[in-house]
Write a structure and sequence with these properties.
It is a peripheral membrane protein. Keywords: ATP-binding, Cell membrane, Ion transport, Iron, Iron transport, Membrane, Nucleotide-binding, Transport. The chain has a single domain, classed as 3-Layer(aba) Sandwich (Rossmann fold), CATH 3.40.50. Helices cover 32% and strands 27% of the residues. The chain is built from nine helices and twelve strands. The strands form three sheets. The protein has a six-stranded mixed sheet with strand order 6-7-8-3-9-10, with helices on both faces. Strands 2-1-4-5 form a four-stranded antiparallel sheet, covered by helices on one side. Strands 11-12 form a two-stranded antiparallel ribbon. Helix 4 packs antiparallel against helix 5. The longest helix has 16 residues. The termini are far apart. 36% of the residues are buried.
Length: 264
């Protein structure tokens, strides 16, 4: 199968303020891809371009060789699922009802609810450990629980390509790894997962493909063992470090060196 999602010579801008330009990148099918880079480098902008939330100022975003802006919204929603950085739930909505909205792309004009919809929501609840909270109001949940509800809505959408913008935000460290394990499991089951991550060691442990950005440019792509080097970390993040193997997975681990102490 050809790689389904690509950008060709893309420039992304907000109100004519260019954020990223001349982007040429392909998302390999059936991989766990992590987009990494310093704050403000264009990671979220790249993801929004792939999801059609932000249309390119120049260039093409292609899905199966066809420009993304030529698809109808429901066609896109059946292929690409997006979890943005921040989402606001309607006031008074319950967990089950919010997750059920992930099934909207499959509903006809009469909004018929099918057994397949029920099954998809139940699986999403179970996968995110939310089954016991299904009847709770979303407003009553903690920040980490609310984040899991949004992830569950994305899972219920059951798209072959999942795009997540900093999905570990608001999660404590245990739930961060729980979520990353879940995303890895979905990838191993055949889904293409693309996520923006800040933690380099989490990206190296869970992703099998990295996209590294700096100042609106893609500076390199590839497997973590090829990409995560002391030179790359210094170039992209300005951080002196050593690279050591993760004692559990053997993947590259960034160990920062202590800077010279500042006199106070």
């Amino acid at each position: 199968m050809n790689n389904r999602l690509t950008m060709e010579d893309v420039t992304m801008a907000y109100d004519n303020r260019v954020i990223a330009e001349k982007l040429n990148v392909t998302i390999p099918d059936n991989t766990f891809t992590a987009i990494i880079g310093p704050n403000g480098c264009g990671k979220s902008t790249l993801l929004r371009g792939f999801s059609r939330v932000l249309n390119p100022q120049h260039g093409k975003v292609l899905l199966d060789g066809r420009q993304l802006d030529s698809f109808k919204p429901k066609e896109i929603a059946r292929e690409l699922g997006l979890l943005p950085q921040t989402s606001i739930a309607p006031e008074g909505i319950r967990v089950y009802d919010l997750i059920s909205r992930g099934r909207a792309p499959y509903q006809g004009l009469i909004q018929q609810w099918r057994a397949s919809d029920e099954d998809a929501v139940a699986k999403a609840l179970a996968s995110t450990n939310l089954t016991e909270l299904a009847a709770r109001l979303v407003d009553e949940l903690s920040g980490g629980q609310r984040q899991r509800v949004w992830v569950a809505m994305l899972l219920a959408q059951q798209t072959p390509i999942m795009l997540l913008d900093e999905p570990t935000t608001f999660l404590d460290i245990a739930h961060q790894y729980e979520l990353l394990e879940l995303l890895r499991a979905f990838n191993e089951a055949g889904k293409t997962v693309v996520t923006v991550l800040h933690d380099l060691n989490q990206a190296a442990r869970y992703a099998d493909h990295l996209i590294v950005m700096k100042q609106g440019q893609i500076i390199t792509t590839g497997a973590p063992q090829d990409v995560i080097t002391t030179e790359l970390v210094k170039e992209a993040f300005g951080l002196d470090c050593i690279i050591a193997p993760d004692p559990v997975t053997g993947t590259p681990t960034v160990v920062p060196l202590r800077p010279e102490r500042v006199e106070i």
